[in-house]
Amino acid sequence: MESNIENAHKGDALKVPNHLAVTMDGNGRWAISHGKLRSHGHKAGTDALRRLVEYSIKYDIKYLTVFSFSSENWSRPKEEVNFILRLMRNYVASDLEKLDDNNVNIKIIGERAGLDKQIIKLIEKAENTTSGNSGLQLIIAFNYGGRGEIARATRNIAKKILDGKLSISDIDENTISDELYLSDVPDPDVVLRTSGEYRFSNFLLWQSAYSELIFIDDYWPDFNEEIFINILKEYAGRERRFGGVEAK
Ligand code: IPE
Ligand code: MG
């Protein structure tokens, strides 16, 4: 059955990206604007993430990458960091079964060294439980930074050279892509950032070279189906040329 929202957009040109990447920003400001503590914003942000996953399944997005915690977020007050970590842990723990039932395949990208053992265990459980699923691939960027990812790729490449498995003259763009966390995942077609901030903030730096960038003013906890459809509409209106002259 079609929802009212779908009905309202009947006839509009929508285009569903194969890979959507989202920086879920504005939890703190949303909370402050409602006279609440920042932690309320993070909690509401988790519900918004649940909605995003639901729409991604409904509209048949193949890859969804979400920026949940950056390698720079550790610089926040300890209580806030702990709260966010607990929320993420609870999200994965409480939703894993449902995500698995919905055929969602979970992957977590980011630096694992130095993470709490419990978190690592949960990450592995989420990945292992859902590894056979063929539906939406949900990629959670956790303790992730784009520069760190490229530095890590560089270390792997240097090691291959030292081991005699690769020669310097053979290094090309694919050599680097192949050493990123998920080399088999296509680049994001759309990178969305909420809350009126116009920055990459170290998210998918290499992968977003040709992505369509969409910035919206809404704070992340307000994310809903209407906003989601508007993004599909915006994307439908973009002409991707990949440096050429004709739309592909
Ligand atoms: C995004 O919301 C959530 C995380 C980065 C974990 P923020 O916490 O950055 O919210 P603002 O930007 O302070 O409003
Ligand atoms: Mg922010």
Description:
- This protein has 248 residues and is α/β, with parallel strands linked by helices.
- It has a single domain, classed as Undecaprenyl pyrophosphate synthetase.
- It is built from 8 helices and 6 strands; from the N terminus they run αβααβαβαβααββα.
- A 6-stranded parallel beta sheet has the order 3-4-2-1-5-6, with helices on both faces.
- α2 (27-33) packs across α3 (38-58).
- It starts with a helix and ends in a 12-residue tail after the last helix.
- The model has no long low-confidence stretch (mean pLDDT 95).
- The structure holds 3-methylbut-3-enyl trihydrogen diphosphate (IPE) and magnesium ion.
- 3-methylbut-3-enyl trihydrogen diphosphate is lined by residues 24-29, 45, 69, 73, 84, 195.
How widely separated are the two ends?
33 Å
Mean pLDDT: 95
Q: Helix share of residues?
A: 40-55%
Structural class: alpha/beta
Sheet bearing the most strands, described?
6 strands, parallel
Instruction: Supply the number of helical segments.
Output: 8
List the bound ligands. 3-methylbut-3-enyl trihydrogen diphosphate, magnesium ion
- Mind telling me the CATH class? Alpha Beta
Which labels suit this protein?
Undecaprenyl pyrophosphate synthetase, binds magnesium ion, six-stranded parallel beta sheet, globular, binds 3-methylbut-3-enyl trihydrogen diphosphate, 248 residues, alpha/beta, 14% strand
